[in-house]
Amino acid sequence: MKLTQVAAQLYTCRDLLQTPSDIAVTLRRIRQIGYTAVQVSGMGPIAEEDLNKILDDEGLVCCATHEGSETILNEPGKVIERLKKLRCTFTAYPYPSGVDFTSRESITGLVRKLDAAGKLLAEAGLTLCYHNHNHEFRKLDGKTILEHIYEGTNPAYLQGEPDTFWVHYGGGENVEWCERLAGRLPLIHLKDYMTNAENQQAFCEIGAGNLNFKKIIAAAEKSGCQWFIVEQDICPGDPVDSLAQSFDHIKAHLAA
Predict the structure, then answer these.
(1) How far is Cα 11 from Cα 26, in angstroms, rounded to an integer?
(2) Domain assignment present for 124
(3) 171/185 Cα distance (integer angstroms)
(4) Which residues of 150-200 form beta strands (DSSP E)?
(5) Which structural domain range is residue 2 located in?
(6) For 143-198, how does the pLDDT look when each residue is reduced to its tens digit (9 = 90+)?
């Protein structure tokens, strides 16, 4: 993994991205850390051309986005239009809102819609990925729901964006999932996992937790991963400071 493949997931800084001026200031801070790419997610309204100008001015690229779950499934044309404007190839389905994971019918419906939306994106030269949480590791008919999702979709139409924290929290094994998604793994969310002083699972900066990122990154690289995206859902203070701590650890210990 090269440092130029390391991106910041902007959802980490969502509270600092609610106006165009806030977006400009925050993206400048992220670039100053050393990141050269971001995943667009969680920000307030801004025209794509205005966001492009900020990105260009700071020397950043949009490596991927998260779009609304319903928009991806029901209005994929809007997603295609937005990605084209942002000069971006990848997006990810962020969360299965409204899906009943106790229902085979509901899961089958999700799989069918993901495959159909992904087909349209693929025909436009774009790639739809799936971002998991922990609940996809519940089992149905002897397999995890995440297995059903990937097995029920065409790899040409749905790729992976595994989230290392949620894989671990759900009881999965990150290296195994990177291997399982060989040739189907353009994106990965690097998110560390720790047990805090209250004996609860918690998000933390890369290197402050327990995940073995050397093995995870090696497995992801072998499976063809292009972007290693740093995310932290909750930060103890300024989220940009947390992104900086993670980047510094990656630079010192994990990047080639």
Answers:
(1) 12
(2) no
(3) 20
(4) 159-161, 187-190, 192-195
(5) 1-66
(6) 999 999 999 999 999 999 999 999 999 999 999 999 999 999 999 999 999 999 99
Helical H segments across 59-191, by residue range: 69-74, 76-85, 104-123, 145-151, 164-169, 174-180
Asked whether residue 1 is domain-assigned, the answer is yes
The answer as to whether 35 is a domain residue is: yes
Q: What is the pLDDT of residue 105?
A: 96
Cα 186 from chain centroid (whole Å): 10
Could you give the percent of the chain with pLDDT greater than 70? 100
How large is the average pLDDT for residues 228-247? 98
What are the pLDDT digits (tens) for 49-74?
A: 999 999 999 999 999 999 999 999 99
Number of domains in the chain: 1
Q: Which residue do the tokens 């030269």 mark?
A: 125
What end-to-end distance do the CA atoms of the chain give, in Å?
6
- Helices 48-58 and 20-33, packing angle to 10 deg: 30
Q: Let me know: does 65 contact 107? Beta carbons within 8 Å.
A: no
Identify whether 14 is part of a domain: yes
Task: Say whether pTM exceeds 0.85.
Answer: yes
Helix (H, G, I), strand (E, B) or coil at 29: helix
Name 188's Cβ contacts closer than 8 Å, sequence gap at least 6: 160, 161, 162, 163, 164, 178, 216, 220, 225, 227, 228, 229
Output the six-digit token pair for 232: 């932290």
- Helix pair 20-33, 239-253: axis angle to 10 deg: 20
Which candidate, 150, 154, 148, places its Cα nearest to that of 162? 150
CA dihedral 145, 148, 149, 150 (to 10 degrees): 120
